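Morning!

This is the sequence you dropped in the shared folder:
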Amino acid sequence: MVLKNASKAWRIAALLSFLAGPAWAENPAATLEAPTVEVVGTTPLPSVGVPLEQVPAAVQAATGKEIGRQQALDLTEFMERNLASVTLNAAQHNPFQPDLSFRGFSASPLLGTPQGISVFVDGVRVNESFGDTVNWDLIPRSAISTINLIPGSNPLFGLNTLGGALAVHTKSGFQYPGFAAQALGGSWGRRALEFEQGGFRDRVDWFVTGNLFDEDGWRQHSPSAVRQLFGKLGFEDDVLDLDASFTYADNTLEGVQALPLSMLDRPEQAYTWPDRTHNKLTFLALKGSRLFGEDRILTANVYYRRLRSDNFSSNVNDEFDPVASPHQGFNDLSNTDQRTYGGSLQLTFLTHLAGRKNQFTVGASLDQGQTDFSQFEQQANFTPDRGTVATSDFALETDVKADNRYTGLYFTDTISLTERLHLTLSGRYNRARLKIRDKTGLEPALNGDHTFSRFNPAVGIAFSLAPGLTPYVAYNEGMRAPTPVELTCADPSAPCRLPNAFLADPPLKQVVSKTWEAGLRGRIAGRLGYTAALYRTRLQDDIQFVSSGGAINAGFFQNVGQTRRQGLELGLQGELGRLRLLGSYGFIDATFRTPFVLNSPNNSSADANGDIQVNPGNRIPGIPRHVFKLRADYPVNGRLTVGLGMLAASDQFARGDENNQDAHGKVPGYAVFNLDARYELARHWHLFLKVSNLFDKRYENFGVLGENFFRGPGNTFDAANAAPEQFRSPGAPRAAWIGVRYALGAAKGERD
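The structure's back. Tokens below.
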């Protein structure tokens, strides 16, 4: 934040003095000349935050400058390469549509992926109302100022915070004055233009950034066209801080499915195509905070968000019959119009309780979602390269309206029992009401009214043994309510082809998470920081999407009893001489804890009766047990800086192999290296290079069980010889891009 008058500077200094401790309290104004205090946002709305040494969690933070230095494609690519226990998979094979996994919990744009991470942008929850999905292509990378990844079931962040919460904060003109523009091009026909401009005058600031991105894709039929625009207008005086922001996106993303093992000799080919998603977003938000005296801060926001998504997908007819059902496949067309709006109000008190420093926050939130979903289906046959050719007109299959109302009341209190011992108590009451109405008039109707509610507590203790050495322990609980998608796709006898066909199904139970975490963070020689954490999260009535064993995107949602994620997380970050280092190791043990039986007759894991018996201890598919990362940045001279990173993940079970018995085995582990470099051509001008998969490693990062219908000559349609097979998503081969950047002002530092 840039402070423009002494009065406001004194007030902010006083707040930081309260947080930082007695050493700074004698002269609050001196804070402006003191070292930076590491403060972490621990509430949904941005506020004063809590000093890192008082936070009982292994919070990971990064800045837009770090993301920019590495020329990350988007937020998810940066997180995969830099944050501990984070991995991506290419289930959809579009670079803007990955499944992100953190400690075994997912945030994904794909319906059918169990969602367990809540995502906020400037205090607004952006998990979509229809399926709790996260559309990563709608968060412009160039607009990001900071991110915080908060682990565990922190109840303050509300629904879906089963394994973590991601808080994204955007740039402002006070923070990022100046102008920058860049262009890049290279492999797979990728070309991109990006600009940003920020500034301030007196009490008003502004920031705007835009991105134009086009790519052909490394696999056939997988191009991307991304159009993003973000703007923010702000006002500050002695006590008031207001920001109004606008985000617009118009993106067309095409992807292709995983390939059966018998077709992986040509990983660039498509299984079936086309599969296309068009996302169009309008997002308006107003956020403000007001200081009352020197010990109270009122923060509030209101927002309106409209997302229109059109999806066209090609699918195999797994009930093909030359007489009764002679078409080889289907084209499915879905239209989803989601309108969400709401707001939050939060009040923070910086006071003393029984003579001890105490920071108390209380808040409330309301999020309302309205979704119109329609799905059409047409019969089709396949061309020799497995594209679809329609043989009938589209016919309406599903037409529903869904209303979501999520309300929450929360509080958190951090009290310093001593100068070194800090206790945090938190809690949140959530109430979720979902109403689904069928507009087709057909039977069985999809009508349903569902209400879920729960109070979730949290407690944690952090103890500063010495400067830079803090052990902590915490316990917290969270929940998520079944989404409209899950509530209408829960019948194992009639699986859904996501995101399309739905049925009138019995309701599902809400998921409850309970997390223990203990850890230690400290510093070595002042410039290297380290973290260590042990955690265990147990879910009650977990919801999983279970593959039916036929078409690879067909299945159903089901409560599967208890599941558990537990593990170890180690991290190292800082400087060693001129070398900037980042390293982490994550051990993730994700298992089912309740036995259950799945009926999936075409699944290669099924017995003679078509059943899959899942037992306690079976590993949850799609989660590698070991993840190791290492990155080093080195300034070769005053102009050239080179960065080298490594990402390694161990093997994982394929989705659909819940009993871990698939004859094709596990998806193998892999290790890939990535390179980036920055060179100062002249004042204000930089040249940058990025190389992914430096050694051209062939690997797969996702697997799913299904039935392969393309076993004829040249992999043509041959239903008579269709057979269960494991499908895998191949990782991208080596690729390189080069670009140039022109920057003035604070924007220049983003690449320094």
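Headline: Confidence is low (pLDDT under 50) at residues 1-14, 20-37, 497-506.

More detail when I'm at my desk.
O.
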